[in-house]
Amino acid sequence: MEILLSTWTISGDLMYIWGGCIAMIFVVLGIDYLYNFLARTARRLWHRFWNPDTTA
Question: What integer pLDDT is reported at residue 11 of this predicted model?
Answer without folding.
Answer: 75
